[in-house]
Amino acid sequence: MAQVLVVDDSMMMRNTLRKILEKAGHTVAGEAVNGEQAIARYPSCQPDVVTMDITMPGLGGVETIKRLIEADPAAKIIVVSSSGQKHVIFDALQAGARNYIIKPVSEDNLLPVIDLVLQNKQAPAPQL
Questions:
Q1: Using one digit for the tens of pLDDT, what is the confidence trace for 11-34?
Q2: Is 42 exposed, middle or buried (CB count within 10 Å of its CB: 0-12, 13-18, 19+)?
Q3: For the domain bounded by 3-109, which CATH number is listed?
Q4: Distance between CA atoms of residues 8 and 43, nearest Å
Q5: What is the pTM of this model?
Q6: What is the CA radius of gyration of the chain?
Q7: Which GO terms describe its biological process (predicted)?
Q8: What DSSP element (H or E) covers 68?
Q9: Where are the domains of the chain?
Q10: Which pLDDT belongs to residue 11?
Q11: Under a CB-based contact definition with an 8 Å cutoff, are residues 43 and 26 in contact?
């Protein structure tokens, strides 16, 4: 099972992700409410995968993805965001995210994508 760093400014969303992940046997190695915290916590968490919101106060998701990939090119980042705008999805994937899940998140749309990303397989593109 995977060690996961959950990055989202919403406590409710972090709790939802934690419940889904832990129920599936994964461990939430850390949480962050913005990009600055994610970058600071990434080295000590050593996550197998990161779930990343896009719209957060301070350093947003796309820039955070760029910085995490620059520091660790093997980082496996899955965007979990309410934004379904094609240009936002494109920017996140271009920055290095492995896939993109549009909220609301559920076991059915999160866990299969995590499994595929952990196996270094390409997950299906999100439906817009």
A1: 999 999 999 999 999 999 999 999
A2: buried
A3: 3.40.50.2300
A4: 18
A5: 0.92
A6: 13
A7: phosphorelay signal transduction system
A8: helix 61-71
A9: 3-109
A10: 97
A11: no
